[in-house]
Design brief:
This protein is an alpha/beta fold. Among the domains are: 29-124 and 411-440, Alpha-Beta Barrel (TIM Barrel), CATH 3.20.20; 133-184, Oligo-1,6-glucosidase, Domain 2 (Oligo-1,6-glucosidase, domain 2). It is built from 15 helices and 24 strands. It has helices at residues 54-59, 61-67, 102-114, 133-138, 199-214, 232-249, 263-270, 283-295, 299-307, 334-344, 361-364, 369-381, 443-447, 453-465, 468-472; strands spanning 11-12, 20-21, 35-38, 71-74, 118-123, 152-153, 173-176, 181-184, 219-222, 254-257, 279-281, 316-320, 327-328, 351-352, 356-357, 385-389, 474-477, 484-491, 494-501, 507-512, 521-524, 532-533, 538-543, 548-554. The strands form 6 sheets. The protein has an 8-stranded parallel β-barrel, surrounded by 4 helices. α7 (263-270) links the parallel β10 (254-257) and β11 (279-281). The chain starts with 10 loop residues before the first strand and ends in an 8-residue tail after the last strand. 50% of the residues are buried.
Length: 562
């Protein structure tokens, strides 16, 4: 829950000034970043074929820069038969022709860099497509040099393995007629697992990293970390080698791991010396947050924060409200999971794999924008780096007519025009069906409304970037009234206090801030209230139903940006 304050890469003005400045060229830029996840094929169709592409995304770089995000995370855009939405790759070094070319990627990176945005890409190292040339060569003969690039067994029953998609795959082993053996696939049968215990395969992944770094990428979101290698020690060895190579090639590169494990196990993947993953998604906090929303009670959130371990000083958690997969609730108890289902997933069709929801937040809360704003204010204030999934800034929903987890990956809604402005008018067929209601929920309309979710989100992102206390500082809980979650982040003499009312009724809350002194002031960072002088260590104010406030303490004699 805490992070040490001794970070050499940070430059501050005199502490008495109370103004904190982060050097944006720091090797640890991710500590105060705002990440935006983009699915290239569903973001903007530039050439009119119904599929989004890299030139289309490049056309929207100015929109993203205006939104205030600082890092684009691109979901897989490599050649693929798309049996798993692009996560089944046939060429790690290429771009799917439907999405553009390597030149288009280079242009995107250059345009993004010019506007202060870094680009990270998905590293899908666990498996390939069964159409990948490596697998085609491996299955031809047991003597093939690629045979040991995958995992085979004559009797798979002796090697049980977890199925990631229960209900879609009966077993993690499939008999291959041509190979004469069973191949292992934790995901789908069309996605055979790579044997990353093989040094040749690890060397190939190093080459993949080197290639995309040379193309301008600033790092990688590492897919499915727990499934990289069956043996944990081999997994650690792999991550250390990837991190060491990346650090040599590009000192500010980042490895962001998808690692849905209990916190104490996640800690191991940062490495005892912080030499493995730079960042990890905080699954325990995300799931506790949704349980807290369902209960209208912050207790699960408080409990989750208490069990988070101290992480290395240059590491960070990544927080999110909604990502591109199902909303996983697998770390909750069965009763807790049923609680969330009973509130946010009453219709069985909204549930998936017995562990999650295939809905976006606005539909989960029946379009109540107070609750939507509460959720993002809370997520952005929690210790770590905030991550947005495309369309969250306008309150996009899902399309349950689309099968499985793809329901939450519809085309982006740019306007009320035909095809939601995603494709030119007259395009015959889109890569995926639109969400109903795009005529009322789109970028164009919200840009014209100063009170829209989009304009509020821009202000929230700007404030988050102006509050390095959150990303760099020490977070501690502040006791307060039932139903309200309050915490403070302290770093280098700067303090931010956030309070969130998870209930459906107004609450008059009291925060005890023992270090408040006469002459100190409280600045309202998200509202329009004037600075308020502290009269005592007990600060009282009212929060409306699902209300939230961010307060910065301005010490007597300090100069703090409002």
């Amino acid at each position: 829950m805490s992070a040490p304050e001794t970070i050499a890469a940070v430059h501050c003005l005199a502490p008495e000034a109370g103004v904190v400045r982060i050097d944006e060229t720091s090797d640890l830029w991710w500590k105060n970043a705002v990440v935006y996840c983009v699915d290239v094929k569903t973001f903007l169709d530039f050439d009119g074929d119904g599929c989004g592409d890299l030139p289309g995304l490049t056309q929207r770089v100015d929109y993203l820069a205006g939104l205030g995000v600082t890092c684009l995370w691109l979901m897989p855009f490599h050649p693929s038969p798309r049996r798993d939405d692009g996560y089944d790759i046939t060429d790690y070094y290429g771009v799917d022709p439907d999405l553009g070319s390597l030149g288009d990627f280079a242009r995107l990176v250059r345009m993004a860099r010019d506007r202060g945005l870094r680009v990270i890409v998905d590293l899908v190292a666990n498996h390939t497509s069964d159409r990948h040339p490596w697998f085609q060569a491996a299955r031809m003969s047991r003597d093939s040099p690629f045979r040991d690039w995958y995992i085979w067994s004559d009797e798979p029953g002796e090697q049980p393995a977890e199925v990631v998609f229960p209900g879609e795959e009966e077993s993690a082993w499939t008999y291959d007629e041509e190979a004469g053996q069973h191949d292992l696939h934790h995901f789908r049968s069309a996605q055979p697992d790579l044997n990353l215990a093989n040094p040749d395969v690890r060397d190939e992944m190093v080459k993949v990293i080197g290639f995309w770094l040379a193309m301008g990428a600033s790092g990688f979101r590492v897919d499915a970390v727990p499934f990289l290698v069956q043996d944990r020690e081999h997994a650690y060895e792999l991550l250390r080698s990837l991190r060491a190579f990346m650090s040599r090639r590009f000192g500010e590169g980042v490895l962001l791991g998808e690692n849905n494990l209990p916190p104490e196990e996640q800690l191991e993947y940062f490495g005892p010396y912080g030499d493995m993953l730079n960042m990890q998604f905080n699954f325990v906090l995300n799931q506790a947050m949704h349980l807290a929303f369902a209960r209208c009670d912050p207790e699960p959130l408080e409990r989750a924060l208490e069990v988070l371990p101290d992480i290395p000083p240059d590491a960070a958690w990544a927080n999110w409200v909604r990502n591109h997969d199902e909303l996983s609730l697998d770390q909750l108890s069965e009763n807790e999971r049923d609680e969330v289902f009973s509130i946010f997933g009453k219709d069985p069709d909204t549930r998936i794999y017995g562990r999650g929801l295939r809905r976006r937040l606005p539909s989960m809360v029946d379009g109540d924008e107070r609750r939507v704003r509460l959720a993002y204010s809370l997520m952005f204030s929690l210790p770590g780096t905030p991550v947005l999934f495309y369309g969250e800034e306008i309150g996009m929903c899902e399309n349950l007519d689309v099968e499985g987890r793809l329901a939450v990956r519809p085309p982006m809604q740019w306007s009320a025009e035909q095809h939601a402005g995603f494709s030119p008018p007259g395009t015959r067929q889109l890569v995926r069906p639109l969400c109903p209601g795009y005529e009322k929920v789109n970028v164009a309309d919200q840009r014209r409304d100063q009170d829209s979710l989009l304009n509020w989100m821009e202000r929230l992102i700007r404030r988050r970037r102006e509050c390095p206390e959150i990303g760099w500082g020490r977070a501690t809980r502040v006791p307060c009234q039932r139903g309200v979650f309050a915490h403070r982040c302290d770093w280098r003499g700067a303090t931010l206090v956030a309070a969130h009312n998870l209930t459906d009724h107004p609450v008059c809350t009291t925060l005890c801030l023992d270090d408040l002194a006469e002459g100190d002031q409280l600045l309202d960072l998200l509202g329009d209230a004037d600075a308020k002088s502290a009269e005592s260590p007990e600060v009282q104010f009212e929060l409306p139903a699902y209300g939230h406030r961010w307060l910065r303490i301005r010490r007597a004699g300090q100069r703090v940006l409002p």
